[in-house]
Design a protein that fits this description.
By secondary structure, the protein is an alpha/beta fold. It has helices spanning 36-41, 77-102, 116-125, 172-181, 201-216, and strands spanning 8-9, 19-24, 48-51, 57-58, 67-68, 109-114, 134-138, 157-162, 187-192.
Length: 218
């Protein structure tokens, strides 16, 4: 099994980490693409450590660089579901390793994903034996919204999507929300007007507030 690695930020307050926030980047990016979110959230989460692993696979056309959690060819729901299933064990092993490294309890973990990374955050976070404190999914979707019978979690979920997203269409937000709430998951969602396939300042503020509230409730 491959070992993931990527940029890390120690708690802004110094000392031992009280929380661990793991960023999962999108298709064709790497951990450096999201680690600055940790710097933006350090003020509201001063005891949090931030980690942004590079996905396990390079893109098939390596000249462009970047990584992928799983290959994308058909870009349909079957491919997404098979992909997250295949990539989950490697991510789970990384999460356990990082929790041990930072000496953070599993209940003080949060997963934050963008696009393909959001698929991974939702699929993995909702199925962890020890549920995380929060799951944030930016510009993503729920892989297999009709296959959620194996989730048992009280973890709150934040879904943020741009109304002008032309990569992952915004209709996935209500589809994902309805599927999750139908299985008892607490979901907060925001469709941001004028936003494409990205995270803007509105999304960063919403994410920071959501994490602070989620951690405070533990």
């Amino acid at each position: 099994m491959s070992v993931l690695d990527g940029p890390r930020l120690s708690p802004a307050a110094g000392g031992k980490a009280g929380r661990l926030i793991v960023f999962l980047h999108g298709y064709g990016a790497d951990g450096a693409d999201l680690i600055d979110l940790g710097r933006a959230w350090a003020e509201v989460l001063p005891d949090a450590a931030f980690v942004a692993p590079d996905a396990r696979e390079p893109l098939p056309f390596e000249a462009l660089g970047g990584r992928q959690w799983f290959a994308l060819t058909e870009r349909d729901m079957r491919e997404y579901r098979l992909g997250v299933d295949a990539a989950r064990p490697v991510l789970e092993a990384f999460l356990e390793s990082e929790l041990g490294h930072w000496q953070v309890a599993p209940s003080d973990l949060a997963l934050v994903g963008f696009s393909q990374g959001a698929m991974m955050a939702l699929h993995t976070g909702l199925r962890r034996r020890n549920p995380p404190a929060a799951i944030l999914a930016y510009s993503g979707l729920l892989a297999g919204p009709d296959r959620l019978d194996d989730i048992q979690t009280s973890t709150p979920v934040l879904l943020v999507h741009g109304s002008e997203d032309d990569v992952v269409p915004p209709y996935h937000l209500p589809v994902s929300q309805d599927a999750l709430t139908g299985h008892g998951v607490s979901v907060e969602s925001h469709l941001l007007e004028g936003l494409g396939h990205s995270i803007d300042e509105r999304g960063m503020v919403l994410g920071g507030r959501f994490l602070k509230t989620a951690f405070s409730g533990r």
